[in-house]
Amino acid sequence: MRCLIRPACHDEEQLPDGSGAAGPERLPHQPSVYFALALTTYLFTILVNLTLVVVVCLDRSLHKPIYIFLCNLCFNGLCGASCFYPKLLHDLLADSQVISYGGCLTQLFSVYCYVFCEFTSLTVMAYDRYLAICRPLQYHTLMTVQKVLQLLLLTWSFSLLETSVGTVLTARLPLCKHHLPRIFCTNWEVVKLSCFDSNTTINNIYGFILMFSHLLQTALILVSYTHLVRASLKLQSDRRKFMQTCVPHLLTLLVFTASLMFDIMYSRYGSRSTLQVLQNALAAEFLVVPPVINPIIYGINLHQIRSKIIHRFSHKAEH
């Protein structure tokens, strides 16, 4: 399925013949099947994330830094899913899948804000686990309520700033093509629609800067985990704490990084001869898989959260 972009200044004009007036290609099967699958996945994503967030918010014993950061991760997952699924559901039932240039930039902004916030949130959670296991006596002194709020503010401010600069750099490019070979808007795909004489050097440089900064974040997480593994091997209590909180975090990081890297590599070097449905499924993996997997991994592995969820649901069932 292909999205068709129309510049905002020409929203009311018809595209010229030969430019793809029918918009995206039709799915090979009934769209209602894909609509039902997408809607079910979206509702399930909302359910598992909201369940974890609500349980943490309502239970005062869970008002600790690691659980607050986990709530932030789940909230970001909801934002990521919500910038993708509603437009997808609309397109699956529409006769033609058309998006305005402004709408495309808005979706692009939301998608990348989700990506950057996910990376920064995982970095903050790694820092929290480092303090909890490697410096337990100083943990409560260092990780105060004020520090938690500062880290959350930094996470969102940093992510919004990164995304805003990238979106502005992309928005300045004039479009000469209107076919977007994706079911959602991404920066690289929109840049490829720009005119041949457009200056994309700044976009490329900024892209490399972002890539380097987030690879640095990943490196910091891995370095912190080397210290965590060493510390956890010394004491049984630290080993248990590592298995309960750090292993889910590491799995979350690996799932998200693998999904995102696969999308980046496929977008730049993937074959266009691949089945369209397969292309779309692989491209959307980082927007679909992590928001579903994150709360499940933490909900199953963290005893405190798992027991609270079971208690609340069993308590409601009794009444």
From TrEMBL:
What is the membrane topology listed in the Swiss-Prot or TrEMBL record? Multi-pass membrane protein
Report the transmembrane regions from the record.
33-58, 65-88, 108-127, 148-171, 205-229, 250-269, 281-302
Going by the UniProt record, its keywords in alphabetical order are: Cell membrane, Disulfide bond, G-protein coupled receptor, Glycoprotein, Membrane, Olfaction, Receptor, Sensory transduction, Transducer, Transmembrane, Transmembrane helix
Its main subcellular localisation, reduced to a broad class, is membrane
Picking any one GO molecular function of the record gives: olfactory receptor activity
Q: Where is the G-protein coupled receptors family 1 profile domain?
A: 48-298
- In Pfam terms, one family for this protein is 7tm_4
- Where's it found, cell-wise? Cell membrane
GO CC annotation terms, alphabetical: plasma membrane
Report the superkingdom from the record: Eukaryota
Q: SUPFAM superfamilies per the record?
A: Family A G protein-coupled receptor-like
- Can you tell me which family this protein belongs to? Belongs to the G-protein coupled receptor 1 family.
Spell out the protein name for this chain: Olfactory receptor
Q: Which organism is it from?
A: Takifugu rubripes rubripes
